[in-house]
Amino acid sequence: MQTLAKEYAARGVIALAVNFGDKPETVRACFEKERFTMTPLLQDGNKVSKAFGVQAYPTTYVLGPDGKVAWRAVGFDETSLRSALEKVAPAK
Amino acid sequence: MVGSRASGSTGVSSIAVLILCLVPASLPRSLPQEDAARARKLLDDAAEGMKEAKVIAFDTEVRTKIQSVEVIQRAKALLERPNLVRLEISGAGQDALIVLDGSNLWHHIKAKNRYLKTKQLGTVKVEQYGIGPVGTLFFDKGPGSLLPYLTGASVTEERLGTEECSVIAWKVGAQETRLWLCGRRLRRFSATRSIGEQTLEQVMTFGAIDLHPHRAADAFAFTPPQDAQPIGATGEARLLAAGTETPDFAATDLDGREVNRLSLKGRPVLLTFWFYG
Q1: Which domains does chain B possess?
Q2: Which of A74, B13, B46, B256 is 20 to 30 Å from B29 by CA-CA measure?
Q3: How buried is A76 (Cβ within 10 angstroms: 0-12 exposed, 13-18 middle, 19+ buried)?
């Protein structure tokens, strides 16, 4: 995830990681320790998760520049995530 | 994470133990970078023993302890490169068969004769059943996904039964993980996590690894028994379909700045939902 986030951020994709349920200091410590470059986000309760219908973690969405859902999946599968990002990222 | 060769370094281990005894306990035994390099070497060596094998088989015992309740299960694992897994789990009234056939993950709960079919995502999903560390070394042909943890790992020596073992340990948040490598074999894995007052501990003990196991022709195929009931895939029912407008939402970054639908306008976005626990 981190590798893909970094690679596609360089091509203009905004990479956000919405946390569910952890304390802000845990989120900060985790991102600092792992040197994640995605932007960690906090939500009020599970409001954002609910808006996106998320019931399992991790769940990942790829949103297109047109503001529509381009792809989503539960779990992490690098190959399919990469192909989804490739479709929305500006050409190299 | 795993190994398969007989110990060939007992002499070296004994010297290491002797040196350890001479160092005052308050002094760090070695610098973190040295431990990281050593941990890497130990795991590389363990993987080396399986490098030529296309299929491996081993038994594991998994003990899960939550406070004073302990559940013991055994599993017989068969792994084939690049991503095939067959796990026969028994014990604690939870007999199950797990098959990763390259495309799907099948989980058949025998007592209830129900099965779950989900998309196979690498081999990560079966870590909890005890192939995890062995699977990492076998499938990645080395420490692979464990590497990020090794930078903060410590390496100490410990006797396990009659064997001299190296213990690689690291901590992330509330979870402590330890791997015991004896000679070039991964023997034990433990993960301990404290949640509030509760402690969850899981210990996996790995048997010898068979580098030339019998592999039945249908070992990595699963056909649901005729009367078996499917269990619906979890977590996907309410997700937004492709093509749906991004909903209104508001989240804040760690400095309190708001991120919402409008602030993302016109840009492609990778949006992942996660929790550390």
Answers
A1: 10-231 (2.50.20.10)
A2: B46
A3: middle
Q: How far apart are CA A85 and CA B267, in angstroms?
A: 12
Which chain B residues are closer than 8 Å to A81 by Cβ?
270
The CATH number that applies at residue A64 is 3.40.30.10
Interface test with A, best of B195, B273, B275 (most A CBs within 10 A): B273
pLDDT for the residue numbered B277: 62
**Quick one: tokens of B77?**
């694992």
Write down the mean pLDDT value for chain B. Answer: 83
Q: CB distance A90–B268 less than 8 Å?
A: yes
3-state SS track over B167-214: EEEEEECCEEEEEEEECCEEEEEEEEEEECCEEEEEEEEECCCECCCC
pTM of the model: 0.61
- pLDDT tens string B174-192: 889 999 999 899 999 999 9
Q: For residue A76, give its domain range.
A: 2-88
Q: Say yes or no to pLDDT of B25 above 50.
A: no
Residue B10 pLDDT: 32
Tell me the nearest-neighbour CA distance from A50 into chain B, angstroms.
9
Please report residues of A whose CB lies closer than 8 A to that of B235: 54-56, 59, 74
